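User: If you would, consider this record:
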Amino acid sequence: MSAAKTTRTYNSRGRQEQARRNRDSILDIARAGFLAHGYAATTMTSIADKSGVAIDTVHKAFGGKAGLVRAIYERSLAGDGPVAAPLRSDEMQHAELDPHVVVRRWGALGAEVAPLVAPIHLLVRDAAITDPEMAALLRDSDAQRRDRMRQNATTLADRGDLKAGVTVEAATDLMWTYSSPELYELLVVRCGWDPARYGQFIGDSLAAALLP
């Protein structure tokens, strides 16, 4: 590789990494603003100012406030690990044969992801009352989570792991309910449970409801 080509490659990677850092910084600042002040009261101008970028940069990257919230929500779904939580879940289901271990690890993943996702979901839910874009995001996020739970339920059914009388649709309903941000709100936010206790409850409850 020539020196010029090597330099261009390094410069390209450097620009991509800087763009990623800038994007993450904007999302961090926007998340903090939305959760502290609410959706309506948090302006694009304040987010741009605190991020140290032009407001046009924020608009170009995210397309407006609703786009920012959607990006924050989607990033939160990945969890804290270096590998996104949904991918870790898929890999775990493929490698682990004991269904009781599988559902309890789903509970542990829920304990990791819910503290990131639930506050944004609840923000969206409140804003959806008056904002059509937030209402659309709420519908999309609920549908996306339900589709994910149906995939998990189908995996259990295909492996013969569901208890007698529990259909894929019934399992989907249960998993969708137990993974809901509203349950996190009740147990963690309002009752004061720590996330580890919440995750164990989810795993134990799913095992009792779904498995022989």
